[in-house]
């Protein structure tokens, strides 16, 4: 892989930082885009990665600026498009904050890929949000796989703007790729957990923190379901999806689904001297939780061996403690 040049968009982010790290470890030359090259909290952790000095090149690019990615993508063998705003909880202007950057941004990146003669494949970071968000998955037990599509109209009615943005972006990407002969592989991760490389708290890690410190459900844990995957498995899946010539279509990337209460039980076993909260909603009616199941056989066929929930939960919690986002001493019994 040593001679391959790839682009990663939104490289400062939680998922993309791991992807960049794993790509560098595998010998790739990485052209990484960030919005602000002069912000140390966005680039410091990338520059510190092993291999970065020799093979990481940073560029500024913005999803909402047409042509912004042309120069970076030109000459790349592959493009990993991960950049997209992740705002799950407080959205004031859905079009401006989420939908336009996700949809127009994706088309912007794909247009640059179509212009560049060099790009052999694009791996697009989508979400389980584009697969599982429908009326009946909220109320009944159901099994979904890559053939399932979220209902953007229902998501809009429910004001789930992140779901709308990802669903419309994936639709737009699929259509553009078909019309322009782009080889597109789509990765659909669940809630991503695991160690943070970046120094700031990203939105979904904040949601995990709300769960373990307050027992609070958020839009990242719909109805109290923990639909999770480890960030290292997400990085690997992107790379395998690029390298395996037979990879195609969508890949549901969910290790398992469990009630959030089970995550807190795992933590109680790992840290016996810490008093973790109860999930308040569960106390009222613990058996009422509808449990979505996600088929991950296609992801396994790509070569993913999913990290155990105990390992992922331990590693993300340790990372939150180490970065001082989770002040565990305040919870000691
Ligand atoms: P994150 O840490 O917030 O990273 C998002 C990245 O997108 C950031 O680097 C951000 O750049 C970039 N971005 C946002 N708006 C942009 C714009 N207008 N122009 C250029 N870049 C822009 O989130 P993440 O959790 O790593 O998510 C990365 C990808 O994974 C997203 O596509 C997300 O939908 C998908 N995903 C995440 C999860 C999860 O649980 N975390 C689950 C499923 C799918 P700045 O650093 O400059 O803000």
Describe the model.
The structure is a single chain. With 333 residues, this protein is of the alpha/beta class. It has a single domain, classed as 3-Layer(aba) Sandwich (Rossmann fold), CATH 3.40.50.720. Helix content is 42%, strand content 17%. It has 14 helices and 12 strands. It has helices at residues 14-25, 40-47, 52-55, 70-73, 94-115, 129-132, 152-157, 161-180, 203-214, 231-243, 260-270, 280-284, 297-301, 309-322; strands at residues 5-9, 29-34, 56-60, 78-81, 121-125, 142-144, 184-189, 191-193, 225-230, 249-253, 256-259, 292-294. Strands 3-2-1-4-5-7-10 form a 7-stranded parallel beta sheet, with helices on both faces. Strands 8-9-11 form a 3-stranded mixed beta sheet. A two-stranded parallel sheet has the order 6-12. Helix 1 links the parallel strand 1 and strand 2 (29-34). Helix 5 (94-115) runs parallel beside helix 8 (161-180) and helix 11 crosses helix 14. The radius of gyration is 19 Å and the shape is globular. The model has no long low-confidence stretch (mean pLDDT 94). The structure holds NADP nicotinamide-adenine-dinucleotide phosphate.
Q: What is the CATH homology-level superfamily?
A: NAD(P)-binding Rossmann-like Domain
Overall tally of domains: 1
What is the share of helical residues?
40-55%
- The arrangement of helices and strands along the chain is EHEHHEHEHEHEHHEEHEHEEHHEHH
Major sheet details = 7 strands, parallel
- CATH level 3 topology: Rossmann fold
Task: Please report which band the strand proportion falls in: under 5%, 5-15%, 15-25%, 25-35%, 35-45% or over 45%.
Answer: 15-25%
CATH architecture descriptor: 3-Layer(aba) Sandwich
Ligands, ions, cofactors? NADP nicotinamide-adenine-dinucleotide phosphate
Cα gyration radius (Å)? 19 Å
Rounded average pLDDT: 94
Task: Kindly name the structural category.
Answer: alpha/beta
The CATH class, by name, is Alpha Beta
Number of strands: 12
**What is the distance, rounded to the nearest whole angstrom, between the alpha carbons of the first and last residues?**
51 Å
Count of DSSP-assigned helices: 14
Low-pLDDT runs = none
- State the shape: globular
């Amino acid at each position: 892989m040593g001679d391959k040049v790839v682009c990663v968009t939104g490289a400062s982010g939680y998922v993309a930082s791991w992807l960049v790290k794993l790509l560098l470890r595998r010998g790739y030359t990485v052209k990484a885009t960030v919005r602000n090259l002069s912000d140390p909290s966005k680039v410091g952790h990338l520059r510190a990665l092993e291999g970065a000095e020799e093979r990481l090149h940073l560029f500024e690019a913005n999803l909402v600026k047409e042509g912004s990615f042309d120069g970076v993508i030109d000459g790349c063998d592959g493009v990993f498009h991960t950049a997209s705003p992740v705002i799950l909880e407080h959205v004031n202007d859905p079009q401006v904050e989420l939908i336009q950057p996700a949809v127009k941004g994706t088309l912007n990146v794909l247009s640059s890929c179509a212009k560049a003669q060099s790009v052999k494949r694009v791996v697009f970071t989508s979400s389980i949000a584009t697969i599982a968000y429908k009326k009946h998955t909220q109320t009944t037990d159901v099994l979904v796989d890559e053939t399932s599509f979220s209902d953007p109209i229902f998501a809009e009615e429910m004001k789930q703007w992140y779901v709308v943005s990802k669903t419309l972006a994936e639709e737009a990407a699929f259509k553009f790729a078909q019309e322009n002969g782009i080889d597109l592989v789509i990765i659909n991760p669940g809630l991503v957990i695991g160690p943070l490389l970046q120094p700031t708290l990203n939105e979904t890690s904040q949601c995990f923190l709300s769960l373990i410190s307050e027992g609070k459900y958020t839009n990242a844990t719909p109805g109290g379901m923990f639909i999770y995957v480890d960030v290292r498995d997400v990085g690997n899946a992107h790379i395998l999806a690029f390298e395996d010539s037979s990879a195609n279509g969508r890949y549901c990337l969910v290790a398992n689904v469990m009630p959030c209460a089970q995550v807190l039980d795992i933590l109680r076993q790992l840290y016996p001297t810490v008093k973790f909260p109860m999930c308040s909603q569960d106390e009222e009616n613990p058996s009422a939780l509808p449990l979505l199941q996600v088929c991950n056989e296609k992801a396994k066929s790509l070569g993913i061996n999913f990290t155990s929930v105990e390992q992922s939960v331990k590693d993300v919690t340790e990372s939150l403690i180490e970065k001082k986002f989770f002040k565990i001493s305040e919870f000691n019994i």
